[in-house]
């Protein structure tokens, strides 16, 4: 009897310690799995017939949450960070095949105080494709021409905390795979998917609601940035789908902005890029026009701690022998090391057609670093 009582007290003590651990740990770590089903958006006439499929896939992810007040009071938002691994079958094995991809992401959470909460996930990664364009064996796959391409995603999720360790989720993904115009053809694939799954806390804890204070107003309201830009295309200058020499793109961008909320800023800037691929096309035609591209930028920046997600509209101010629209979109994802050194990548697109991915390294200027 005494042994049973002691054993019972030990178990109660352990349970109490575990419960306390859950409550004082503001940094849970989860692993999760989800299943996906979706469709392909035929964004040009040539893609209509090959787009009549229903992709399906499997997702594995690992994520951690940082909810300590001293880390979240500036933004007022608790966010997940993590890595995700996807397998997608495009439901057309002979033409489209399948993809395997990995991405890093940031995922702001909303309504974290209750059992139900939502989140918005944005991320960037790399995808490997089993089927790509071939003029003889696979001429209708105009989506992909590079086996290794880039994955960009924007996902909306709804979560339910069933227990301290288990969460169920359902959501909607918007996925984009493209090589950014580095090889042609490159229509790129946009394929939304619905998903559902479950997550398990290998390091459980209670997520604390971010404090709603005016601390963010103490952060610098004005900022500026400068970027060094580099990229490449490996396509013949005559515009054919045959592969040619690497053509380099390089340049710089500068901008200024003003923070208008906890997570939002507006910014304007300019970028000047020397397009080596355009230079080759001009040389092929015997043209002496410039290969420099100059433009004005204006748009929005999402500020989630050290992570910055930019959406800018570009207006060409210098583009000799232009073959595209006068406007374009640029989507960028950056991480600010020490709140100063910017490292990231952007995608330039003319409407639904991706033009080029680039890599950027830059510097963020502000009155003083934000302590996060």
At CATH level 3, the topology of the largest domain is: Porin
Main sheet record: 8 strands, antiparallel, barrel
Lateral strand order in the biggest sheet: 1-2-3-4-5-6-7-8
Radius of gyration: 24 Å
Question: What are the low-pLDDT stretches, counting only 5+ consecutive residues below 50?
Answer: 5-23
Question: Please, could you describe this protein's structure?
Answer:
The chain has an 8-stranded antiparallel β-barrel with strand order 1-2-3-4-5-6-7-8. The chain has an 8-stranded antiparallel β-barrel with strand order 9-10-11-12-13-14-15-16. The protein has 3 helices and 16 strands. β10 (247-259) and β11 form a beta hairpin. By secondary structure, the chain is mainly β. It starts with a helix and ends in a 6-residue tail after the last strand. It has 2 domains: 28-203, Porin, CATH 2.40.160; 219-366, Beta Barrel (Porin), CATH 2.40.160.20.
């Amino acid at each position: 009897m005494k042994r049973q009582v002691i054993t019972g007290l030990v178990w109660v003590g352990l349970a109490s310690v575990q419960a306390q651990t859950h409550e004082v740990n503001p940094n849970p770590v989860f692993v999760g799995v989800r299943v996906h089903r979706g469709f392909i958006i035929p964004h040009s006439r040539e893609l209509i017939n090959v787009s009549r499929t229903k992709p399906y896939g499997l997702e594995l992810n690992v994520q951690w949450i940082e909810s300590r007040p001293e880390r979240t009071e500036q933004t007022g938002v608790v966010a997940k960070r993590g890595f995700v691994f996807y397998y997608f079958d495009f439901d057309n094995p002979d033409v489209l095949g399948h993809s395997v991809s990995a991405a890093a992401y940031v995922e702001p959470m909303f309504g974290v105080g209750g059992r139900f909460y939502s989140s918005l996930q944005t991320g960037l990664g790399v995808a490997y494709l089993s089927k790509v364009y071939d003029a003889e064996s696979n001429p209708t796959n105009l989506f992909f021409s590079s086996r290794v391409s880039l994955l960009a995603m924007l996902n909306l999720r709804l979560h339910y905390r069933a227990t301290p360790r288990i969460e169920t989720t359902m959501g909607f993904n918007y996925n984009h795979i493209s090589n950014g115009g580095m090889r042609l053809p490159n229509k790129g694939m946009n394929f939304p998917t619905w998903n559902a799954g479950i997550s398990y806390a290998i390091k459980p804890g209670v997520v604390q609601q971010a404090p709603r204070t005016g601390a963010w107003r103490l952060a610098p309201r004005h900022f500026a940035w400068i970027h060094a830009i580099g990229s490449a295309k490996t396509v013949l200058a005559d515009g054919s789908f045959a592969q040619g020499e690497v053509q380099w793109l390089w340049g710089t961008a500068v901008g200024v902005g003003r923070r208008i909320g906890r997570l939002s800023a507006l910014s304007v800037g300019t970028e000047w890029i020397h397009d080596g691929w355009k230079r080759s096309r001009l040389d092929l035609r015997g043209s002496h026009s410039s290969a420099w591209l100059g433009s004005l930028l204006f748009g929005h920046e999402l500020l989630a701690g050290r992570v910055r997600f930019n959406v800018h509209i570009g207006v060409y101010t210098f583009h000799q022998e232009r073959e595209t629209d006068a406007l374009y979109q640029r989507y960028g994802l950056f991480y600010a090391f020490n709140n100063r050194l910017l490292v990231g990548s952007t995608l330039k697109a003319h409407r639904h057609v991706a033009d080029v991915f680039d890599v950027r390294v830059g510097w963020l200027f502000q009155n003083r670093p934000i302590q996060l």
